[in-house]
Amino acid sequence: MYAGRLNLRTLIVGEEAGGLIATTTLVENYPGFVSIPGGKLAERLLEHAKHYGVELIEERVEEIRQNCNVFEVLTSSGSRYEAKSVILATGTVHRKLPAKNAEKFEGRGVYYCALCDAPLFRDRKVAVVGGGDGAAKEALLLAEYAEKVYILCRDEGLHAEPPNLRKIEENPRIEIINHTNVVEILGEERVSGVLMQRQGREERLEVEGVFVAIGGIPRSELARRLGVEVNEKGEVVTDKQARTNLAGVFAAGDVTAGGFRQAIISVAEGVTAAYSAYRYLTSEYVETRRCNGEP
What we know:
This protein has helices at 2-5, 38-51, 114-117, 133-142, 162-170, 221-226, 263-284; strands at 11-13, 55-57, 61-67, 70-75, 80-83, 86-88, 92-94, 110-111, 125-129, 148-152, 174-177, 180-187, 191-198, 201-205, 209-212, 216-218, 249-251. It is α/β, with parallel strands linked by helices and 295 residues long.
């Protein structure tokens, strides 16, 4: 939206418009909206951007190459786009559960999105693995369908935002089990339970579904291959102007190094990146830059 308002010819290229926020049941901490479905918020943001002439291409970006001061963006369909500046806003992917058989049962009892799959577990028992606000939100949605929801926390207590924690405590269908480490997913064709370690002993919990909410992994593969600096966690390193170590490349959102993962923070970083790209293109970009000795 800001890039469009600044009269930059802007193209959004990505597989999933909206990112992870589009899979969030309700967003209740975005200014101006007391409560709004994540998908609806993502839709409104995209519509606003399109109002300023921004184009959207729903394809996976396979590679970004730098040729002097021009960037080539190559997609899964074989399409190729050229840009004078790039903003990386690739976000994160769900962190997989490091338990035996977790991968085997994905789609057959192990899931990473309650909004997508909660209706499958009406009147059944399910577990949510995680100890943060994301786990709380997953549990609250699941409790609208499931008979019983267990939240399996590795630490003492659920570290959720106070409003969500209060809802958890008031919901008789939700039970928190602390000091728990899930070591194996049990079942034959589908999930029938989990094996967990609690205070030095193993316990079995019978559930038909396991929803994993243990954070995300930054999608920084494109950045790394391009030569953008990342930290030990794989997060893109930026300064306060959203600049990376490569001239003309900026980054924003959950893919960048930062401790507070919120939609409003990502939006603010996106605004900063767009304005920094504008300043780069209008005051720093030099079309006659020499490459390999050639003008």
